[in-house]
Design brief:
The chain is α/β, with parallel strands linked by helices and 325 residues long. It contains 14 helices and ten strands.
């Protein structure tokens, strides 16, 4: 009887803990512009259970960058991973902050129809981007400006949507060129399309795979935000140090082969930040295109746009405890 009573007690306690875990997992919605390597840190954090360990039930909600930004401001999502839209809105007074970023280099490739051989041949041609004001659009406009071309006047920029849609639009001739992300940059040469620019090789700072949130959430529930940042940081560190495991996670989430996922990982690895945190110099460079587009010569205080204090805190704690993926 005593043994049976103890067994019943163990089962009951285990069940109570299991139920408590289910109840306490707080729902977190994250607006993402695409299902690509941009979400690398989040994919790994979800797959390895880091969010669940922090008591968070994270849902990635696919929506255009501009829509995700509006949803964040309205409180319909808790975070987004679209920093360019966030910075643009913050410059206009929206209370948004970037807390962490996976990438700091532009992860885009400009492909064209085969008869277009050089960037200057894009005059009076149509180029597809995801959405106006998004990172790809901003990078394209800056690059064209460096080539002496004015986007919108000499080169037509069209908001087409996600990577697959842009690829198909370029393939069927709806547009003359398109800003592509992985895996479409690998598929484009196979379709006979021409690479005009590899932005990862350009001197352009463009944030991607970031954590953007409202100041209101930081003030009202900072512990929850810290848990989200901690889990994402763990996902980032795991991705940084484990190629094989990360490629497998990418393959599952992007629904591609592990071989292709490994190629994407190798390409993306060079664009990753060392620790998810930006120096003041990189913060200024990330902000510069938005300031230039707005016609502003002054540089507002950086803490209006960036707050890496939680990222620094959790990174320091993980290092101090010797945490390993």
């Amino acid at each position: 009887m005593k043994i049976w009573f103890k067994l019943e007690t163990i089962v009951l306690v285990t069940a109570l803990f299991y139920c408590a875990d289910q109840v306490e997992a707080a729902a977190v919605r994250v607006g993402v512009a695409d299902i690509s390597q941009s979400q690398l840190s989040l994919f790994v954090a979800k797959d390895k259970g880091y969010y669940r360990q922090e008591g968070l039930d994270v849902e990635l909600v696919l929506m255009a960058g501009a829509t995700a930004n509006q949803a964040l401001i309205a409180g319909n999502v808790d975070y987004t991973t679209v920093p360019t839209a966030g910075l643009t809105a913050a410059l206009q007074g929206a209370p948004l902050k970037i807390l962490f970023t996976t990438y700091h280099k532009a992860m885009f490739w400009l492909y064209s129809r085969p008869e277009i051989r050089e960037v200057k041949d894009l005059v009076n041609k149509k180029v597809a981007v995801s959405s106006i004001g998004a990172a790809a659009d901003s990078a394209l406009r800056e690059f064209l400006g460096r080539q002496g071309l004015e986007a919108g006047r000499e080169v037509v920029i069209l908001a087409i949507g996600v990577g697959s849609t842009r690829f198909i639009a370029l393939q069927n001739g709806t547009v003359d060129a398109a800003m592509l992300t992985t895996p479409w940059n690998f598929k484009a040469p196979e379709a006979g399309l021409r690479e005009l620019v590899s932005f990862i090789k350009q001197d352009l700072i463009r944030l991607n795979g970031s954590i953007v949130t409202r100041e209101g959430l930081l003030q009202s529930d900072r512990p929850s935000v810290e848990r989200f940042v901690r889990a994402t940081e763990k996902g980032f560190l795991s991705a940084l140090h484990s190629r094989t495991e990360t490629a497998a996670i990418l393959a599952r989430n992007m629904r591609i082969s592990e071989d292709l996922a490994a190629r994407i990982y190798d390409l993306a690895r060079s664009a990753m930040t060392p620790d998810g945190i930006l120096s003041e110099d990189l913060q200024k460079k990330a902000l510069h295109p938005m300031l230039e587009r707005a016609g502003r010569r002054d540089v507002p205080p950086l803490d209006k746009f960036f707050d890496f204090s939680l990222a620094r805190k959790v990174r320091g704690e993980l290092a101090a405890t010797g945490w390993k993926p």
